[in-house]
Amino acid sequence: MDIREHFILMADYNIRMNGQIYDACTGLSADKLSADRGAFFGSLLGALNHLVVGDLLWLARFSVHSDRYHSLSNLSAWPTPQALDEILYADLSSLVTVRTTLDRLIRQWLSEEVSVADFNRPLVYANSKGVVSERNFGELVCHFFNHQTHHRGQITTLLSQENIDVGVTDFLIDIPDQFQHSS
Predict the structure, then answer these.
(1) Taking the complete model, does pTM exceed 0.85, yes or no?
(2) What is the pLDDT along the chain (183 residues), one digit of tens a residue?
(3) Which is the most buried residue in 33, 51, 154, 159, by most CB within 10 A?
(4) Is residue 137 a contact partner of residue 119, using CB atoms and an 8 Å limit?
(5) What is the CA 118 to chain-centroid distance, rounded?
(6) Which residues face 134 on adjacent strands?
(7) Domains, the chain, ranges and CATH?
């Protein structure tokens, strides 16, 4: 398995799944989107914002890993989250725009700027509380994608409670079928 290609595939999975999640949310009123449902980040809007917050925090940390990461250099123009539960965007329309842009940025960064060697080097970063860590960059990119999957699972549960089916969520359908491609 080529680790860089794997992460590009994960970026494609994120694009598909985030599209399905946001499509599923479009039929909900602003009140239903912001209603506290007892989830980690309260509401659907809270969970969707948390995913954006998490992505912005991690991408800012990743941006210093290589001077080749030009697509991440303009993150300073984006909001700088101060808390993991911060509501950066109070309406679904704004979130859709931001999510779509972020997902494209993530894919571009991985497909055009990251090298396989980058994944084997450590990244030194400070978390939101200022605690400094040094961890394997490849494992941190795994965490980045796993974090999205984890919270999308919560979001799909909340949508299911509203009798909204987001469709197929399995990563399996994004993995190319070698049998199908060889015939």
Answers:
(1) yes
(2) 899 999 999 999 999 999 999 999 999 999 999 999 998 999 999 999 999 999 999 999 999 999 999 999 988 899 999 999 999 999 999 999 999 999 999 999 999 999 999 999 999 999 988 999 999 999 999 999 999 999 999 999 999 999 999 999 999 989 888 887 665
(3) 51
(4) yes
(5) 20
(6) 124
(7) 3-176 (1.20.120.450)
